Amino acid sequence: MECVNIFVVGLSHKTAPVELRERVSLGESEVRHVLTQLRESRTVLESVVVSTCNRLEVYGLGPSARAGSDFVLDVVAKATGVERGTLWRHAYVRQGEEAVRHGMRVACGLDSVVFGETQILGQMREAYQWALEEGATGSVMNRMFREIIHVGKRAQTETTIGREAVSVSYAAVQLARKVLGDLSGKQVAVVGAGHMASLAARHFAAQKPQSLLILNRTVARAEVLAAEVGGEARALEEEGLRQALAQADVLLTAIGRGRPVITRSMVADALASRRGRPIVVLDIAVPRDVEAEASQFASVYLYDVDDLEGVVAANLEERARQEEAVEAMIDEGVAAFSQWLTEQEVVPVIAALHQRGEAIEREVMASLLRKLPHLGEREQKVIHKHMMSIVHQLLREPVKNVKEMALQSGNPAYAETLAALFGLEPAALGGRVRVELERGAETPGGAHAQPAFSQG
Q1: Does the residue 336 lie in any domain?
Q2: What's the CATH code of the domain at 178?
Q3: What is the count of structural domains for the chain?
Q4: Residue 50 sits in the same domain as residue 104
Q5: Residues 6 or more apart whose Cβ sits within 8 Å of residue 171
Q6: Which of 257, 339, 352, 371 is the most exposed place for a label (fewest CB within 10 A)?
Q7: Is 118 annotated as a binding-site member?
Q8: What average pLDDT does this structure show over 116-122?
Q9: Longest dimension (CA), the chain
Q10: In sequence order, which ranges of 248-304 are alpha helices (DSSP H)?
Q11: Residue 315 annotated as binding?
Q12: Catalytic residue (choose from 17, 22, 28, 53)
């Protein structure tokens, strides 16, 4: 029996710098080219290529996980112009059950830059569709990716894994939405262009506001951030800040100069032209950028970093609970896929066994007709029916028991024992292939460690 192995080899934001990820990011035509190269080899029998801005992963099936990973990186190196050694230094390889589990974690957003994000599921679905269209998948990858996508859907619909703010910047966006609702028609201003302000600007941009203004002392930095988030950049001056207070629905500031850049009087002046329209002011700077007295106005919703960190702490606890629920779904998905693999080894033996029984019935029936040529059509049908009933009754319990024992133990050797007992020839089993799904440890790219399970 031929043994084959499931593996995934890839680079992601956890192992490779953005400069390298940019070079290996593949468009649709390049993904299809790589799929064709893999399909035409004997080293990778089935494959799916997932390429996003934060990861390039190739899920494969082949006689050897190590040889398959080597070949995949050779193909990627030729397609991207990146040296193979560079790819290996930043690559990871997972094998067997860990490869399947990794795919499910990715689809659920547990391995994403933004924890629990939902876009990756659509990207994996698209990658699978491209592989299908290129004829790069077979029964194993088809079943595996359907299970991966199913688990990803469950994580999105049955938990809130991606809906809780676990960074101060995202918590700020969440609070703004709680006060104002949908931000798609709102005007947003971000004061600052440092790390925290940039994160917040990206989160706000994802809400598709009517406008997004970046104010910063260094206009060049503001322009870079504004270009990234699709906003407008201006110099941070008092007049521009007053105008932002008068117009914006949400204003976030993250400078921390050591003295307030927004005073109570500035807010009071801005409210005169707002005609009661509320404003959410999010001060995530330490020291604070906004005078605390600015919160005294009824239409001003002022939150500082302590307020936001309280939201983060509460949401971290909830996220841990949701992550546990998602991991349980992944366990179920891995178990379902493992059971399916076991069934695929047992089914050919059972089918061959039934075919053997039917062949014996035909031989006996032919012999009987030679000895009793006077039997009419009706009598022949009755005899045939009862003989087939005997065959099925004889096989029912052995077949039922071998399926149950194989599934309970995860070892399809029971099917081989049954085949031997009934004298089935190997040719009758249709060239069975065993997919090894033992746990395989992560293999760093440069280590070339031996896979932890059988290679055919």
Answers
A1: no
A2: 3.40.50.720
A3: 3
A4: yes
A5: 165, 308, 309, 311, 312, 315
A6: 371
A7: yes
A8: 84
A9: 114
A10: 264-272
A11: no
A12: 53
- Return the H-helix or E-strand segment holding 191: strand 187-191
In this structure, the answer to whether residues 32 and 139 fall within a common structural domain is yes
β-bridge pairing 55-62 and 2-12: antiparallel
Reply yes or no on whether 3 is catalytic. Answer: no
Count of C-beta atoms within a 10 Å radius of residue 284: 26
Tokens 């990658």 sit on residue: 127
Confidence of residue 406 (pLDDT cuts 50, 70, 90): low
Residue 174 known to bind ligand: no
User: In what helix (H) or strand (E) does residue 213 lie, and over which residues does it extend?
Assistant: strand 211-216
- 19-43 average pLDDT score: 93
Q: Estimate to the nearest angstrom the gap between the alpha carbon of 244 and the chain centroid.
A: 40
pLDDT higher than 60, residue 25: yes
| Residues 383, 388, 393, 395, Cα dihedral to 10° | 150
Q: What helix, strand, coil percent values describe the chain, rounded to 5?
A: 60, 15, 25
Nearest to 236 by CA among 225, 222, 252: 222
CATH number of the CATH domain containing 74: 3.30.460.30
* Mean pLDDT computed over 264-289: 92
The answer to whether the beta carbons of residues 131 and 149 sit under 8 Å apart is no
Task: Report pLDDT digits (tens) over 410-435.
Answer: 565 666 776 777 777 655 555 555 67
Query: In the 3-class helix/strand/coil scheme, how is 212-272 assigned residue by residue?
Result: EEEEECCHHHHHHHHHHHCCEEEECCHHHHHHHHHHCCEEEECCCCCCCCECHHHHHHHHH
CB 391 within 8 A of CB 406: no
- What angle do helix axes 168-180 and 305-371 make, rounded to 10 degrees? 90
H helical segments located in 108-194: 119-133, 139-158, 168-180
- The rounded radius of gyration (Å) of the Cα atoms in the chain is 31
What's the pLDDT score for residue 48? Answer: 98
Task: Tell whether 240 is in a known binding site.
Answer: no
Tens-digit pLDDT profile for residues 44-58: 999 999 998 789 999
pLDDT of residue 438: 63
Residue 357 has pLDDT above 90, yes or no: no
Which amino acid, one-letter code, is at 447? A
Asked whether 175 and 168 are in contact (CB, 8 A), the reply is no
**Sequence letter at residue 60:** G
Q: What is the pLDDT of residue 165?
A: 53
What's the CA gap between 359 and 357, in Å, rounded?
Answer: 5
Residue ranges making up the domain that contains 39: 2-158+440-447
The pairing of strands 300-304 and 279-283 is: parallel
